Amino acid sequence: xxxxxxxxxxxxxIGSNVLxxxxxxxxxxxxxxxxDQIALxxxxxxxxxxxxxxxxxxxxxxxxxxxxxxxxESRQLFSAVGQAKxxxxxxxxxxxxxxxxxxxxxxxxxxxxxxxxxxxxxxxxVMLDHGVVPIVNENDTISVTELMFTDNDxxxxxxxxxxxxxVLIILSNVDGIYDGPPSDAGSKVIRRVEPSMALxxxxxxxxxxxxxxxxxxxxxxxxxxxxxxxxxxxxxxxxEDILLHVVNEPEATLCTLFVASEANASxxxxxxxxxxxxxxxxxxxxxxxxxxxxxxxxxxILPIGVxxxxxxxxxxDIVHVADAQGNVIGxxxxxxxxxxxxxxxxxxxxxxxxxxxxxxxxxxxIEQTNMRKSRIAARSAAQLGDERINSVLCAVANEAEAxxxxxxxxxxxxxxxxxxxxP
Length: 423
Prior knowledge:
It is a single chain. The chain is of the alpha/beta class. It is 40% helix and 15% strand. It is built from 13 helices and 13 strands. The chain has an 8-stranded mixed beta sheet with strand order 3-4-2-1-5-7-8-6, with helices on both faces. The protein has a 5-stranded mixed beta sheet with strand order 10-9-11-12-13, with helices on both faces. The longest helix is centred in the last third of the chain and has 32 residues, at 386-417.
């Protein structure tokens, strides 16, 4: 356990189901064990950023409410009480090891601009430089549903890329991603996920008992972070010394590893990739421009290739880039405001509306996802018998024939109403 790790900086996300008992109270014994492990990694010279759930759950266990609150009010109340309890417990546990901790509360909206993003990153960098362990959580007291992270898995992915960690470790209440229902005795943990591997058929959609997310969200975030050049491990946070095992003995530890892509994106592109939810408008491209942008060579969004601008935005805002029909192919930071962009549509010799350095192409990710779904469908079709396949094909043919007949009848009615003298 004491051998030198390959990691210099790691992010550890601890889920609500790891930190809470069945009755919703904080599992102090589990928290103490995880802090002990983080302290040992700290002594090995590893910088640790902790993204911790549990505030709402721990606050809920403290209060007995007589009146019924709506979902936003209850989250605000429980998190206000629970966050104080949670950070105080972390403070006491880390203090026993002589380690200082600092609380970082954030919101999705506060990371919408590049300046806010860099300020957040600068804060955590100075903490790490001075030996302080950042403990990050979403500030649920001021977050509302429309502006919340999906869950702390999404927040952990953003923090991992922001801080350029070597690995993101997501601790849940299961050993990883299974090739079947985890409750089935025959299901096995998928140990290694390569960038091209399809997982959709394996993912369970159930949410965890006290958190907002489930394995579907974890898988999506893990894939996104791995595509940006950071390895991701999903492991069981309830297992003894799990952090020490996944960091120091990853090959011998039961977990799921998402292999990092070799193409490491720049810091600004990582921010943009996680900012698609903040897009203020859409820049639509003509077919030729789409072909160029999706080509092998790096290409910026030039006014000559733009056919329309949707929405109102300011210079440096995040915008979606789409084809003429509105299908999103990328997200980027605009160098124009919406009025200037509209005035520049179709013009030559103008600076890029979105420079390539501030453009993240998402079409390829969508295309890869669709290919994975197609492979799943093909495997499912291969398991059907000939009789079943013929039945499905006949049903499709009958439906198509019915629709063609309807269209022909409608066209005949239109032709009958037309004036033959009109051109």
